[in-house]
Design brief:
48% of the residues lie in helices and 11% in strands. It is mainly α and 466 residues long.
């Protein structure tokens, strides 16, 4: 029977959830969720200076926005330090690690001499095979006994087989002289204790895999399945950085991108399923596989992100979309909608969500439903409300008060009225937009009337006529 899939996301708290980290979390989440497995979260908080509660919370907030729920309790790497150290001492007792008494000055002097002579700077400790009874009473580090012959082969699901000569691996430090464990040891012990079966992470960790395999093999533990994914680059082909724009997942939330669109885009960033660009979470979970991840770095393209977000807004459930759009207002520091505005916003959703790529665009299109009388037209819209058209609106209002309030009858009423004025409805559209929304670019006049209802529509027309 195949063991259930267990993946993990293990960020270092740096103050925000990096967009590259968000994609790594998403890939792990999709792989586990699509196979009925577990997706675990570990905070690698051994750097106590940077690992503040606020920094950790920023990561959790970013994951919550993206909808990446994890299983079980959050694991703190720092809290497991005693366990990590105990494993190092087990290796020491088994003769698979040793005490090294070399000082930093001695190691630095060796490397300087090696560089000067053109030799490898890979440090070989003279303490590897010294008997314990010959050890001095002095500070020491614990080093693993690395294999010195043959090769280590990383069987990677993305990069293929990666061969590393063992004579290129040093006897890595496991415990520092103060007894604290190093990151490489902590990661292996935590992954083993958490039952992680698949390690999906950035390919900047690829070289770490060979060093971590030394620990797995020395302990007789199963090595997880490796999948090292290429990093994300900017449009110029260089590693994604601040010069390319926003780096934190929550920055995109504040800019008004919907979470579903962001998930879709990040999933497609370096992974593909045929030619499919737009897909749902359910499809992503069903389709996602490590074989679909490319070896080349993906390029972040804001236009593609906006295009996908627009498609997700257009097909979203109206109530869910209203709720997420209102949450955007909160995180972006805007006033919350009143109960009345919230109701009108959802009522208008059917006619405003088409072609809106972000929540600011959605609110802009829904302006007519959120604004209150009296409406002051903007400069462009005001130009269409001259005395002639004010008089026409004054004549139109009584006819609308007696009209049946459905699209077919409204279209018939307005077209007949335009005909009676020896013109076409298109000539009336500008003044009507100005009166109903105060803008020259709006949803269709008929949709605005249907959303506003007869009483509010007529009141706005009367305001404009007066």
């Amino acid at each position: 029977m195949t063991a259930p899939v267990v993946t993990r996301f293990a960020p270092s708290p740096t103050g925000f959830l990096h967009i590259g980290g968000a994609r790594t979390a998403l890939f792990n989440w999709l792989y586990a969720r699509g196979r009925g497995g577990k997706f675990l979260l570990r905070i690698e908080d051994t750097d106590r200076a940077r690992s503040t509660p606020e920094a950790t919370q920023a990561i959790l907030d970013g994951m919550a926005w993206l909808g990446l729920d994890h299983d079980g309790e959050i694991v703190s790497q720092f809290d497991n330090a005693e366990r990590h150290a105990a494993v190092a001492m087990d290796l020491l007792a088994a003769g698979k690690a040793y005490k090294c008494f070399a000082t930093q000055e001695e190691i630095s002097a060796f490397r300087e001499a090696a560089r000067a002579e053109g030799r490898s700077t890979l440090y070989r400790s003279p303490w590897r095979d010294v008997a314990p009874d010959e050890h001095p009473d002095a500070p020491y580090v614990v080093r693993i006994k690395a294999p010195q012959e043959g090769e280590t082969i990383i069987h990677d699901q993305v990069q293929g087989d990666v061969n590393i000569r063992n004579d290129q691996l040093d006897d890595m430090v496991l415990l520092r002289s103060d007894g604290t464990p190093v990151y490489m040891l902590a990661v292996v012990v935590d992954d083993h204790d958490m039952g992680v079966t698949h390690v999906i992470r950035g390919d900047d960790h690829l070289n770490n895999a060979a060093r971590q395999m030394m620990i797995y093999n020395a302990l007789g533990w199963d090595v997880p399945v490796w999948a090292h994914i290429p990093l994300i680059h900017g449009p110029d082909g260089k590693k994604l950085s601040k010069r390319h724009g926003a780096l934190g997942a929550q920055e995109y939330q504040v800019m008004g991108y919907p979470a579903a669109g962001m998930r879709n885009y990040l999933a497609r960033l370096g992974w593909s399923h045929g030619d499919d660009e737009f897909f749902t979470d359910a499809q992503a979970k069903e389709w996602f596989d490590l074989s679909g991840i490319g070896k080349s770095p993906a390029r972040f393209d804001t236009k593609k992100l906006e295009n996908l977000c627009g498609q997700h807004i257009a097909c979203a459930d109206d109530a869910a979309l209203r709720q997420e759009a209102e949450a955007f207002r909160v995180v972006s520091g805007q006033p919350a909608l009143t109960a009345s505005q919230s109701h009108m916003f959802e009522t208008a959703m059917y006619c405003v969500k088409e072609r809106a790529k972000t929540f600011p665009e959605l609110f802009e299109k829904a302006h007519f439903a959120l604004t209150e009388r009296p409406i002051t037209p903007d400069e462009k819209a005001a130009k269409s409300l001259d005395d002639v058209f004010r008089g026409i609106l004054r004549e139109l209002t009584p006819q609308l008060q007696n009209a049946s309030w459905d699209r077919e009858n409204l279209e018939a009423t307005l077209n007949a009225f335009a005909h009676s004025k020896d013109t076409k409805f298109g000539k009336l559209a500008g003044p009507l937009r100005a009166a109903l929304a105060g803008k020259s670019v709006t949803p269709s006049v008929f949709d605005m009337m249907l959303v506003l209802g007869p009483e509010e529509t007529c009141a706005r027309l009367n305001d404009a006529a007066d």
